[in-house]
Amino acid sequence: MGxxxxxxxxxxxxxxxxxxxxxRFFELPHHIVGVRLLTKPLEGCGKRMRYCEGVRRxxxxxxxxxLTERELTCGxxxxxxxxxxxxxxxxxxxxxxxxLLSPLQKMDEADVVLIVATPSRIMRIAELYSKIxxxxxxxxxxxxxxxxxxxxxxxxxxxxxxxxxxxxxxFFAGYRENEVVLGMPLEVFERLSxxxxxxxxxxxxxxxxxxxxxxxxxxxxxxxxxxKATDHFMGYFGNSIVRLHVLKxxxxxxxxxxxxxxxxxxEEAKRAIESAxxxxxxxxxxxxxxxxxxxxxxxxxxxxxCRKEYFEEEIKRAIEGMLEAERKLRKAVLKxxxxxxxxxxxx
Length: 347
What we know:
Elements: H1 8-26, E1 33-38, H2 51-61, E2 65-67, H3 75-80, E3 98-103, E4 112-117, H4 119-132, H5 145-157, E5 161-163, H6 167-172, E6 180-185, H7 186-194, H8 198-204, H9 215-223, E7 227-228, E8 233-237, E9 240-246, E10 254-262, H10 266-275, E11 282-286, E12 289-297, H11 302-305, H12 309-341
Antiparallel strand pairs: 1-3, 1-4, 2-3, 4-6, 5-6, 7-8, 8-9, 9-10, 10-12, 11-12
């Protein structure tokens, strides 16, 4: 299921762009997770865990996991996902031999898309969905949440469903109090992503106004070499300029970093985008520029996080990752240009 009418490479590129567009627009710091229900026997990842834990690991750390009945440690997930039959009543799913979990942009196909986010971000997704498809009619009970409510229900019914999670997900898998999970079929995700235009992304990425940002946070960023602007900070790192936006959120716990990279032509910028398949970065092209964007969550209000040692280290690590991405893009473009300039071998 998914994008039709293109080659495999084109579908992969389209899906990656869809994921990037969706994450930028809704300011999602975690990976969007794709789920594939497998009906043929295969070898699992060998790591024992709950299904909801696997989803969270894929969302936070980008892990690709195959879970079979041997790996699963939760009987509720085995029943909800169709590995085994319930003791009472009829099975909603059956015949499942394994489940593939992965960041969506790394998958050829997916049955269900899972989004781990705060209620405020899920609200924005629901607003967009309601304008296109109608309201989301959520069904949840606090039991078999990520496996049943967020995965099985969208797979069976073909519509999105929201899960407020269950005690097992929060206690054993480490979901935070301000996190919920929205599941939807891949086709629904792609329709939503297709409606998001670049102008909307630009508006969505604007940060809090400087007057709204706590003074300790402003002082800390200035001490790190950033300069204040109306709604963002700007800093020079090597020969590159990085913008930092404090994102509008309930607890102001996230920021986005933006690194504009200029290429010699629009064609080179297009090549840079094409070469980025598989790279864990968000990209957007505008004429001969490529913007590298990254959303970082500190998991606590930034005005508190900025007083701790890890704050500066986390920002520097994120910026270095973006600078490394810039180097890879430039190297890929240079390599491709050099290969095209080589004369044909007539020997």
